[in-house]
From TrEMBL:
GO MF annotations, alphabetized: rRNA binding; structural constituent of ribosome
Domain Large ribosomal subunit protein uL6 alpha-beta: 11-84, 92-166
Assembly and binders: Part of the 50S ribosomal subunit.
Protein name from the UniProt record: Large ribosomal subunit protein uL6
HAMAP family with a match to the protein in the record: Ribosomal_uL6_B (MF_01365_B)
Protein's GO biological process: cytoplasmic translation
Alphabetical keyword list: Ribonucleoprotein, Ribosomal protein, RNA-binding, rRNA-binding
Keyword rRNA-binding: yes
Keyword field contains rRNA-binding: yes
Record lineage: Bacteria, Pseudomonadati, Planctomycetota, Planctomycetia, Pirellulales
Gene that this polypeptide is encoded by: rplF
Pfam family, one: Ribosomal_L6
Length: 181
């Protein structure tokens, strides 16, 4: 029994959910998202209680798996179009910096060349200063994916902690070879 899948998703004011065939469209002040759910799951909008109700056909393993997954994706879509998602990255290191030029994020993170990454059209990327990058958008998956791609360009190294990390991320610093003496 899926405990998360049985819980209905409340639709806040200002958000419109429409279902046509297997396509779910969610529209709100931050944007519009759509998702095509699996045939093992049924999705309905209850206009009386203003909730999205997710149910499944069978009790086999894939049906149970997609039941909770579909509910979580719809809940994330509703939060995304209402409030949006945000990831903050910080760049640590002497001479390491980030800047935005048009639709390109430019990073200097200790390599011989500057790294350039094209910013996806559905995301808003800002640099409040040279050592911080803020990624905002209504799609949780694309915000997290772009943040992970930027972080993977120069992960924090364990000896000095230099690199790109999520804001608030704790990097365990290893002692150097002189610590053994």
């Amino acid at each position: 029994m899926s405990r998360i899948g049985n819980k209905p998703v409340a639709i806040p004011s200002g958000v419109k959910v429409s279902i046509a065939d297997r396509n779910i469209d969610v529209e709100g002040p931050k944007g519009k998202l759509s998702f095509k759910h699996r045939p093992e799951v049924k999705v309905a909008v209850d206009s009386d209680t203003n909730q999205v109700i997710i149910s499944r056909d069978g009790d086999d393993r894939p049906s149970r798996e997609f039941h909770g997954l579909t509910r979580a994706i719809i809940a994330n879509m509703i939060v995304g179009v209402k409030d949006g998602y945000e990831k903050k990255l910080e760049i640590v290191g002497v001479g390491y910096l980030a800047s935005i030029s048009g639709d390109t994020l430019q990073l200097r993170v200790g390599y011989a060349n500057e790294l350039h990454r094209k910013i996806p059209t559905d995301l808003t990327v800002t640099c409040p200063d040279q050592t911080h990058v803020v990624i905002q958008g209504c799609d949780k998956q694309s915000v997290g994916q772009f943040a992970a791609e930027i972080r993977s360009l120069r992960k924090p190294e364990p000896y000095k902690g230099k690199g790109i990390r999520y804001q608030g991320e704790q990097v365990k610093i290893k002692p150097g070879k002189s610590a053994t003496k």
